[in-house]
């Protein structure tokens, strides 16, 4: 069997709007983000989703809570779905982080982790998913590192190619695991 996996990013945050790369900081949804989270719920509540897996960072938790409150769909928080840990640079200007991203593909940010380490966490999450959710449709709410992990482990994309791409938001990505 296989798992139908849908990925959605957390909704817009105050940091996103002010050009900050939040990393492992909690983040807070903006007004626009709360609207986006409600829209996600409208898209996904009746989409055959058996469970929602969310990063345990506040911005992803808030997104899942707004989108699925009262739906009866279980929402499970998993730290392995977090964004890359920029360590001492969490909260740095996003344009600065993007310019230096390639240098941290394998070299950890000071006091943090590398992009390859962040993506490896997502791989461990994916390895555990079939133990309970084989044959089901699940939603994952996460970050850039989460999506790169899905593109790498499910889609076969090289991290060297992913790290140079701009992140373009859209209402979900579909994957098939297994």
Automatic annotation (TrEMBL):
Keyword Acyltransferase recorded: no
Membrane-spanning parts: none
Example GO molecular function: fructose-2,6-bisphosphate 2-phosphatase activity
InterPro entries (UniProt xref): His_Pase_superF_clade-1, His_PPase_superfam, Phosphoglycerate_Mutase
Active site feature: 10 (tele-phosphohistidine intermediate), 83 (proton donor/acceptor)
Record carries keyword Hydrolase: yes
Protein name: Histidine phosphatase family protein
Organism: Trebonia kvetii
């Amino acid at each position: 069997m296989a798992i139908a996996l849908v990925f959605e990013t957390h909704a817009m945050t105050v940091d996103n709007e002010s050009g900050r790369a939040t990393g492992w900081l909690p983040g807070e949804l903006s007004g626009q983000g709360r609207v986006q989270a409600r829209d996600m719920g409208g898209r996904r509540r009746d989409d055959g989703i058996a469970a929602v897996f969310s990063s345990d960072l506040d911005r992803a938790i808030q997104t899942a809570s707004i989108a699925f409150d009262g739906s009866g769909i279980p929402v499970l928080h998993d730290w392995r779905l977090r964004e890359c840990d920029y360590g001492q640079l969490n909260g740095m200007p996003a344009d600065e982080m993007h310019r230096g991203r390639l240098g941290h593909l394998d070299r950890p940010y000071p006091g943090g982790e590398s992009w390859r380490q962040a993506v490896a966490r997502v791989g461990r999450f994916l390895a555990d998913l079939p133990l309970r959710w084989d044959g089901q449709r699940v939603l994952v709410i996460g970050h850039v590192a989460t999506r790169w992990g899905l593109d790498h482990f499910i889609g076969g994309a090289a991290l060297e190619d992913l790290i140079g791409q701009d992140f373009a938001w859209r209402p979900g990505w579909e994957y098939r695991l297994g």
